[in-house]
Amino acid sequence: MKIAVDAMGGDFAPGVAMEGTAQALADFPDYEIVLVGHTAKLKFYLEKYGIAGHPRITLHHAPEVVEMRELSSTSLRSKKHSSLTECARLLKSKEVDGMVTAGHTGATVAATKVLVRTLPGVDRPALAASMPAQGGRFLVVDAGANTDCTPTNLVQFALMGEIYARFLYKKDHPRVGLLSVGGEDVKGNDLTKKVFPVLDERVPNFVGNVEADTVFEGAADVLVSDGFSGNVFLKASEGLAKSTIYWLKEVMLKNPLRMTGAKMLTNAFRELKNYGSSEVIGGAPLLGINGICIIGHGGSTPLSVRNAIRVCGECIKFRLNEQIVESLQNAHCTTAELAEIERRDA
Amino acid sequence: MKIAVDAMGGDFAPGVAMEGTAQALADFPDYEIVLVGHTAKLKFYLEKYGIAGHPRITLHHAPEVVEMRELSSTSLRSKKHSSLTECARLLKSKEVDGMVTAGHTGATVAATKVLVRTLPGVDRPALAASMPAQGGRFLVVDAGANTDCTPTNLVQFALMGEIYARFLYKKDHPRVGLLSVGGEDVKGNDLTKKVFPVLDERVPNFVGNVEADTVFEGAADVLVSDGFSGNVFLKASEGLAKSTIYWLKEVMLKNPLRMTGAKMLTNAFRELKNYGSSEVIGGAPLLGINGICIIGHGGSTPLSVRNAIRVCGECIKFRLNEQIVESLQNAHCTTAELAEIERRDA
Hints:
2 copies of one chain form a homodimer.
Chain A: E1 2-6, H1 15-27, E2 32-37, H2 39-48, E3 57-61, H3 72-78, H4 83-92, E4 98-101, H5 105-116, E5 126-133, E6 136-141, H6 151-169, E7 176-179, H7 190-202, E8 206-210, E9 222-224, H8 227-252, H9 256-264, H10 266-276, E10 284-287, E11 292-295, H11 302-317, H12 320-330, H13 335-345
Parallel strand pairs in A: 1-2, 1-4, 2-3, 4-11, 6-9, 7-8, 7-9
Antiparallel strand pairs in A: 5-6, 5-10, 10-11
């Protein structure tokens, strides 16, 4: 099993990616890693983390890097040999079974869509982000790969998310909910109203509309959304979580009694912070691409990278993509089969 | 100045609405209140809160109540004499200058749209919810009145929100941001991309695209959005805030040391909770309706109702609606003037 790791991706590249790779090599003896990046720049870190000349490492040279501030739409054309593009090329040519990057999400979506293409029967790929709920977790699909979606896209996001949730949450029958503005069946916007009956008919364990607040109470295991609202959902949560920490500090530092109390809760706050952390999962898969692609947070730690590599390997072993193709076929939800629904609605 | 109060609206009606009304009458000597509800059922509370026969109270009988679980689309037809509908009728006939309800948001939007209609030049009304940011607050417009929006709607939401933010936050030049999935100008979905140049040209202090996380750090005073994404933003925040309290309790009750620390922070946590509370503002105005309409949270307390009545009165004094009409005219953003943009985009 071969996995390409974008050594130049992420805010702390290449150090973090290299250290994470070293951990993965030590922990997963059946993984082979292709390190993609500026080889001259990687040498120092290969030595530093004791993996220079490691039998399960191959180096693949990529002279350029897509910076976080670049536009995803132009990065593919302007940097034809970025570490990201090279990872996608390796995935396309099947020289690797999967790729891991903590780089530019939009550019990764663009590069894999254009170079690797989607799975047979899949129209658009979707980013599946795992978030904490009371007493569990849930997946947001799509968390931001597509800003404008069709009913076909949402039906496929639901099925792809259902398969991934089976793997990630070890649940046989994950409940799939549609992100909407009211719990009743008839609530929502044009898109959710159109897709609701199709989800109801073709997606197993469809629990109907789910609101953005009740999902945190465990209303669904998979939250299906267009990538715009899904991204708003994800970022609003991240933003509020960060601000809550800011506000907590503000109120806790107001007098010595509170400061003492806060000190006694140091470990509790650390545990709380871990609830929201993506370190354990390492990253979000881009579901529907013809090859496993795991996208880590820009601020990934070595442990995140190590776990993104682990998840990538596990998805390969789980035969995630074969299962997605099968599920879409069984539910009669390939793009061609859903074309009739799109026509009916037009 | 006359304000209609929906006595039957909210989870704890009519008690909470009546107690809030009593407080408002005591605190604001120039407010006259028309209490709308089942008069026989109100008598007990009029006595209880010492406002029976109060010279500034009028009773207006409404035999029906729109329940929270009813569909907004059908509530207007099925209950022609609900307290909500009667409030809207009083507003339409100018028997009152404003109305306050803690009842069904969707039904309020429907009733006021159909009965009271929008202001001259305004296509659709928008719910403006005030939320906490680090070191301040910001408005989400639209927080859920319209699930599908046109560029015209978003431009008008921006201008209406800008006027309301001037009043609410006492800022001369509130910064207006467009909720999107990336900070760069070209990021977003079809709607945000279409409306961006119009906002840029016609809205004062337009700061461009704002992401759902950075707005909590104070990126904008007004966050413009279609009502679907705006509602997702609002509810995701509410849901995460609630879950954070749940998780906090979970980690703090794990051992005696932590429990002691938590006790020392009781007041700090109470202050933190107040950051998110809408009690001070009392409710969200439905901007663009031809009459002031303030919608409180279903779980409103007497203080929320009292403050919603206060805000309603202040909006009337501020001549909010006259200023909105003026602002739209000055910016050449009435529905008729924006029709050209809609055509250009079609």
